[in-house]
Structures are given as C-alpha cells and as structure tokens.
TrEMBL record:
This is Type 1 glutamine amidotransferase. One of its GO terms (cellular component) is cytosol. GO terms for molecular function: transferase activity. PANTHER family: GLUTAMINE AMIDOTRANSFERASE YLR126C-RELATED. Residues 56-203 form the Glutamine amidotransferase domain. It comes from Salinarimonas soli. Residues 8-21 have a biased composition (Basic and acidic residues). InterPro entries: ChyE-like, Class_I_gatase-like, GATASE. Pfam families: GATase.
Amino acid sequence: MRFLVAESEPRQAREARRESVGRSSGETYLKVLEALVPGARCTRVKPADAGAELPSGEALAGYDAVFLTGSPLHLYQETPETRREVGFMQAVFASGTPSFGSCAGLQLATVAAGGRVRPGARGREAGFARRITPTDSGAGHPLLRGRPSPYDAPAVHTDEVEALPPGAVLLAANRLTRVQAAEIRHGAGLFWGVQYHPEISLAEVAGALRRQADDLIQDGLARSGEDVETYAAQVEALHREPDRRDLAWRLGLDEEVTDVRRRTAELRNFIEHLVGPTRSERGRG
C-alpha cells in the first residue's frame, strides 16, 4: 500500500514537538502506519509550508490513502498556512483518495467540505477525551468497530467542529466536544476522522501536557507547573509499564487507552474497511 501523510503542523510547532517527544506529528503517523501495515510505502508532505509539493511525478490519486495529522493552526483564522491547508484538503477530496484525519485533520476536512470550526465552547480537552459515546450511526459504523460505549482516548485540542458540512454523519460525541468522530463525503472523496488522537502514545500525551503547562494553569486545569509535571510523569510511567493497574486506576484509564491495539482501533478500521476495498476497486489488489 502507498500512504501519504499530510503533516498539518507549521514549522515552529513541528520543531517544538520534535524537541519534546522526538518526533513531529507526521513522523508519529509514519511510525504507526509502518507498524500497522508492514511494507507500506509512506510519504510525508507538509501542506502548511510555502512551496510544499508532492514528490515529482506523483499525484494524490496515486496513493491508497491520505492521513492528516493534528496541528495548532486555527482554521477559523484566515492565514497563508490555513489557506494552503484547506486547498490541499479540497484537492484530496477531488482526487477520490480515501482520507483519515485526527484532531485538526477532522477540522480541516470539515472546513474544506463547507462546515465550520470554532474555539471549544466548553474549553480544551487536555490529555484524554473522556466517555466518548458512539451515536446510533456510529455504533454500526466500521470506523468505530470494536469500541465500547463509552470509551476514552488521547486528546489534546482547543478548537472543535461547530457545524459538520452537508451530508456528513456524526459518529461519536462526549460532554465536552459534540463532534468526536464523523464521516464526510465531498465531491469524489470520502473522509473518516476523529477529534482525538488514536495515533499517539502515552509518552506523546505526556509531552503535550508539558508543552502546554502554562495554558493548562491559565485555564484552571492545574494549579502549578508541579501539578502538570506530576500528572505528566504518571502518564509517561504508564507508557513505560502499560500493565501497571495502580497507574491506570489513578489516571482513570483502561485498556482502550493503555493497550496499543485498542488505542489505534480507528486507524486499523480505516485501513481494513475503507482503504483495502477501495484499493481493490481501483485494481491495485
């Protein structure tokens, strides 16, 4: 299979994340996809960057799937970076190549298809999205196959989908964020996405908490930098020892987060139930 990873982070955020956890968001996707599909040929592009292009001679339609990463960009702000991102996603839809996005990836597909994004009406989700509940449509949708009701997942975001585009299907929600998972059809394309992060490890959750410590304190989610560090250190320790029941209990987590196979369920489901059949229809089976 041939996968294209569209790294939505602008350069400064990319470098900050790499310094924090050793990988940019796109590099995280590459690592996870290569583990999920051994032998897959993965290419990374950076559509937020000026002058970023596909490799010479390549076209979006030549890939079996496009994956869109998270990003600190705010898609309700008109900037050169957001214009490039939206234009790229519109081209993905036009190509007919199946696409998947997490966090800002879902927001990007929403805006490119005519929906709206806003700052989170109930504040940020930091660390984990709790009690995500599939809708009636989501309970039978292959993207969420294997997920119980409710479930938790890694999540780090301040923005949310305000209104899905016409024809989109809401698949999951929780108390804090109304759109946690959705299917979007637009033009020739089909997108499955989630507001949370099935691709990131608990070590990357800990890194995100540390990078955002000042914001967490300002938002009242922590009293001090020491509070943030204590919580982040527990999350990181659970990454190293995922079978530690004491840490999972203390953090209120279960196997939906601590078990890597369960945590990455949406990615596996997307590849198995959308990418694979589409690939066969295109004659690449």
